[in-house]
Known about the structure:
Shape of chain A: globular
Low-confidence stretches of chain A: none
Mean pLDDT of chain A: 96
Structural class of chain A: alpha+beta
Largest sheet of chain A: 9 strands, mixed
CATH class of the largest domain in chain A: Alpha Beta
CATH architecture of the largest domain in chain A: Alpha-Beta Barrel
Number of domains of chain A: 2
Order of helices and strands of chain A: EEEHEEHHEEHEHEEEEHEHEEEH
Oligomer: homodimer
CATH topology of the largest domain in chain A: D-amino Acid Aminotransferase, Chain A, domain 2
Amino acid sequence: MLIDGRPARAVSVADRGLQYGDGVFETLPISAGVVRHWERHLERLRLGCARLGMACPEDTLLRADLDRLRAGVDHGVLKLIVTRGVGGRGYRPPDPARPTRIFVRYPWRPYPTALYRSGIVVRVCATRLSRNPVLAGIKHLNRLEQVLARHEWADPEVHEGLMLDTGGRVIEGTMTNLFLACAGRLVTPDLSESGVLGIMRGLCIEAAARVGLETEIRAVDLAEMYTAESAFVCNSLVGIWPIRELQGKGKRRYAACDLLARVTAAMGPDAIGGT
Amino acid sequence: MLIDGRPARAVSVADRGLQYGDGVFETLPISAGVVRHWERHLERLRLGCARLGMACPEDTLLRADLDRLRAGVDHGVLKLIVTRGVGGRGYRPPDPARPTRIFVRYPWRPYPTALYRSGIVVRVCATRLSRNPVLAGIKHLNRLEQVLARHEWADPEVHEGLMLDTGGRVIEGTMTNLFLACAGRLVTPDLSESGVLGIMRGLCIEAAARVGLETEIRAVDLAEMYTAESAFVCNSLVGIWPIRELQGKGKRRYAACDLLARVTAAMGPDAIGGT
């Protein structure tokens, strides 16, 4: 664990990350000694900082921390948190503010192969995502909605929860983005008002394009989840998990689908994330 | 500063307060050696913890910390943060979770008397509050919207920013609740989808009732801010500040108003908060 480049395990109580969730984060796999897609994560981190009007730590500093934490590690998970730094009382950001950068390395816990082969079970969460274009897309530290959604179930047989926004549109999983195969087309929810623009989501859209599949990015309603032929979720750690079953007002079982198989194949090693 | 009852200045990086803004807070004045309205703040804290599905520290522990921090202090500000505690990676709350309680004492910085007598200048913020009944009302740690709103201006002559929700309704100030005098009636925005149920807001409603004034709690649109006879904001630290001028698409100057003067008078010392 490194805080501002030094080994440490605690942050100041005055840090605005704790006080207000005033910051952004990234979660990345170390796979076969390599931090996958670091440049893309860095780009989103920078975008997040810009959107929050805060400075982003210099690339060289982040890169140095990264190299230190991945040295000699075959598989692992890195979490990077960047906060606006220490401040006084009150919402007003300090000026100048010096961002805090926190890198934590976790051990890699492999996901069961069955989740990739047979797919996962997803429930529809009662907790809704609020809609605000100012915060949509970026991976900021205000994550109470995800926490409350994930708190809704304890059944280990349910692997992910699907979240709708307050307007009833399907947005994403608690920790993943969502893709559907609808009437032979690839669809993923529009995230301009809610949700996180996942790195793996972007890679899926690009991989699909490489095999001649265009992805429709648009509003998705819950009824479509029941009419879709097939669906999968993705994030940087897990790669792609097909959805086997959706548990909502009714149960929906999905069949394997050629369209999603083509995307997964085009993804190559990214389809298995950090595994 | 006390963390879980012990003098400390830093919290674990693994604390969910930092990781997700997973917690609640209270800000209270110490005035003439007394922590004002502690029971009401405690009640809101408990409500917030219950709404987030987390344990609240025992009253006796909080009270012991409080007594330690107010001992020998004439005026000051206390901030209490309660988080869900330390956890592993992922949104799922640990079970069992042991909440972290953090008490910080700040020195009292008196507000200029003119703000109470002549009133304050308020701007209309561009940053909107999202709407989500699950999080509305409680004083949780996901405060990026307030941070972004407060980041919109640096002019020290502007004292507060008015925030609308994403539907265009007037909700509150960045750090205060709002009251209006409209057609001879006292009005305050409904907070069932956005905003914080302020302790001082509750005290104002009760004080108004004591002098025979009922408060309408309802949706307020921005146009009403321009037709209102008068308006004020309030919170536990400042008490009541009349609004002198609203800066939005047009400027609106408010006159002193008998109705608000009656509420202020009925509030007694609460009208001047920690001062």
